[in-house]
Amino acid sequence: MVVSLVVTAFWAMLPAYIPNNAAVLAGGGRPIDGGRTMDGRRILGDGKTWRGTAAGTIAGLAVALALNVVQPTVSSLLGFSLPTFPLAAGFGLALGAMLGDIGASFLKRRTGRERGAAFPGLDQLDFVVGALVLALVFAPAWFTATFTLPLLTVVLVMTPVLHVVTNVGAYVLGLKNEPW
Ligand code: CTP
Ligand code: K
Ligand code: MG
């Protein structure tokens, strides 16, 4: 019961977990804000690029489509049914994760935090909230059928833990400049 809930939460959120990591690997090039400032500070900063955002969104969507392919096999191996991702749901999760992270950078700049500065809490949940909201908007029927209250609870508890672990890992591997 608890195991299937945790596995389902991880599976359902994978299209939202991949984009930020893909953006780290693909980042660079023109920043989304084009270098523009607001109140004397960058609107978003150099850490939010068109290439990273596009690569992250495409990677998240690709993961959703790949999970659809293996869903029957994995479900029967596990003995319980994992969700599949309609195109709108996969796209909503992936793009929403990127937009949540971009929104967080906007808030960081408005509160005087330089690029790369930590914002505990926001850093760990920005992309989850963005992903869930956009999935709800793009695929409401799928969202309400998939994300029961227990599943949402597991997602909101598990994601910050996974976020910390993967970011420390990426930092140790030299892929990220900061361990958050
Ligand atoms: N990245 C990107 N485009 C995005 C998100 C991330 O290009 N939409 C890349 C950038 O190279 C960025 C790196 O991934 O530096 C790490 O992402 P993140 O930690 O979110 O950005 P920061 O550089 O820490 O900037 P911020 O303080 O705005 O979060
Ligand atoms: K971030
Ligand atoms: Mg960062």
Automatic annotation (TrEMBL):
Keyword field contains Cell membrane: yes
GO CC field: plasma membrane
Top-level taxon of the source organism: Archaea
Subcellular location: Cell membrane
Alphabetical GO biological process terms: glycerophospholipid biosynthetic process
Pfam families recorded: CarS-like
Topology class, membrane: Multi-pass membrane protein
Keyword Transferase recorded: yes
Catalytic activity: 2,3-bis-O-(geranylgeranyl)-sn-glycerol 1-phosphate + CTP + H(+) = CDP-2,3-bis-O-(geranylgeranyl)-sn-glycerol + diphosphate
Cofactor: Mg(2+)
Chain ranges passing through the membrane: 6-28, 49-67, 87-107, 127-145, 151-174
Gene Ontology molecular function, alphabetical: CDP-2,3-bis-(O-geranylgeranyl)-sn-glycerol synthase activity
Pathway: Membrane lipid metabolism; glycerophospholipid metabolism
Main location: membrane
Alphabetical UniProt keywords: Cell membrane, Lipid biosynthesis, Lipid metabolism, Magnesium, Membrane, Nucleotidyltransferase, Phospholipid biosynthesis, Phospholipid metabolism, Transferase, Transmembrane, Transmembrane helix
EC number(s) stated in the UniProt entry for this protein: 2.7.7.67
Signal peptide bounds: none
NCBIfam families: PRK04032.1 (NF003114)
Family listed: Belongs to the CDP-archaeol synthase family.
Function: Catalyzes the formation of CDP-2,3-bis-(O-geranylgeranyl)-sn-glycerol (CDP-archaeol) from 2,3-bis-(O-geranylgeranyl)-sn-glycerol 1-phosphate (DGGGP) and CTP. This reaction is the third ether-bond-formation step in the biosynthesis of archaeal membrane lipids.
Protein's name in the database: CDP-archaeol synthase
UniProt source species: Haloferax namakaokahaiae
Gene field: carS
